[in-house]
TrEMBL record:
Source species of the chain: Parnassius apollo
Official protein name in the record: (apollo) hypothetical protein
PANTHER family to which the protein is assigned, alphabetical: DNA-DIRECTED RNA POLYMERASES I, II, AND III SUBUNIT RPABC2, PTHR10773:SF19
């Protein structure tokens, strides 16, 4: 009767009886045979070699400080596995499945796919990633940083408003664009070759213009007919590749110096003011009637302006000699030069650009 209650048959009872000793069942033997399918070490090594062959983005082109390595985000793990399978088929070698490839990629390598994002300050990122104790220690500095950030936005807004009134003012904003890697193409061969890194630093001079109402736009009480609006005027791009310069303070400072020399000849070459570093200055201004006096603030919370006289005692402008940052040509890495030459020789790069790549 108990068989009907437990919904079992004689076979179940017989199996339990045969596999029990002193009232205890023997250990389950399923999966403990020696006939498991194993992936050969040669296949695993081929997968590792394929992953190692993917060019990594150099650490000094990444804003975040991390031990993780990054590869171009133009492909997924599935795409990489398909490329790996195609490579094995061309070479007549056995290949592993996607599960094995993904397991090795995620388990044995500390890799991530790089996608350019909006720049964030190192202080903000470091504070967010800190443990509670470190956050308490750095909270004051972080709060001051947030105050300065909000005040800087307010000052930028004031500068825009002032530009509407006085068109002779010079207001400019600048930004270092995301690194551009070349050459690029729609075939997989480009993905597995190291590329040349290019930097683009832009300076946009804001201009005040008469607002033009769009055609057929109905007039409302909130419309600003004839009011002055602030737009981005001429944007100057300072472009260089890694064979000409790096991505640091020397390059950024050189770009800004060139812009200042063009717009304000009286400010060329200033590096220190009354023992105050130029990097500490948050705001500075020069009046037309006092062109030799530079007013500046080292914090947006300052209520009074500090002054620096740009003229020496002999009435000459204080312009320290600037030194050339690089005295010799910067050489790119050998493996990168080899990859670029391979693309050129195989006509993946048009021969029109041969002189440029040969002279890197």
């Amino acid at each position: 009767m108990f068989k009907n209650t437990l919904d079992i048959n004689d076979r179940t009872i017989k199996t339990v009886t045969e596999k029990s000793t002193d009232g205890f069942l023997k250990e389950d033997q399923r999966g403990k045979h020696n006939k498991h399918y194993t992936v050969g070490e040669a296949i695993k090594n081929d997968i590792r070699d394929h992953i190692k062959g993917i060019p990594k983005i150099e650490s000094h082109y990444l804003r975040a400080q991390t031990t993780r390595e990054f590869i171009d985000g133009g492909k997924t793990i599935s795409d990489l596995h398909r490329d790996y399978v195609d490579q094995c088929k061309r070479n007549g070698r056995n290949y592993g499945n996607y599960v094995m490839y993904s397991r090795i990629f995620n388990g044995e390598f500390n890799l991530g796919f790089f996608a350019p994002k909006k720049d964030r300050g190192e202080l903000c990122v470091a504070y967010e990633n800190s443990n509670p104790e470190d956050k308490l220690q750095h909270k004051k500095k972080y709060d001051e940083h947030l105050v300065e950030k909000n005040l800087s936005r307010e000052e930028k807004k004031k500068d825009k408003e002032a530009l509407k009134i006085n068109k002779n003012l010079i207001v400019a904003v600048y930004d270092l664009q995301a690194v551009l890697q070349v050459p690029r193409g729609n075939v997989s061969v480009f993905y597995y070759k190291s590329k040349l890194n290019n930097m683009n630093f832009t300076v946009s001079k804001l201009t005040a213009e008469n607002a033009e109402r769009k055609r057929n736009q109905p007039t409302t009480s909130n419309s600003n007919n004839g009011d002055l609006i602030v737009n981005h005027g001429i944007t100057e791009c300072y472009f260089w590749h890694e064979g000409e310069g790096n991505r640091g303070a020397d390059e950024i400072g050189s770009c800004l110096l060139k812009f200042i020399e063009k717009e304000l000849h009286s400010l060329t070459g200033i590096t220190t003011l009354n023992k105050i570093r130029i990097s500490d200055i948050k705001m500075m201004t020069i009046a037309k009637n006092r062109p030799n006096i530079l007013k500046y603030k080292t914090s947006y919370t300052d209520t009074e302006w500090s002054e620096a006289n740009l003229l020496s005692r002999n009435k000459k402008l204080i312009i320290p000699d600037t030194k050339q940052a690089y005295t010799t040509k910067i050489k790119i890495k050998e493996n990168k030069k080899t990859d670029l030459m391979t693309l050129l020789q195989n006509n993946h790069i048009p021969s029109f650009y041969a002189d440029f790549y040969n002279n890197l």
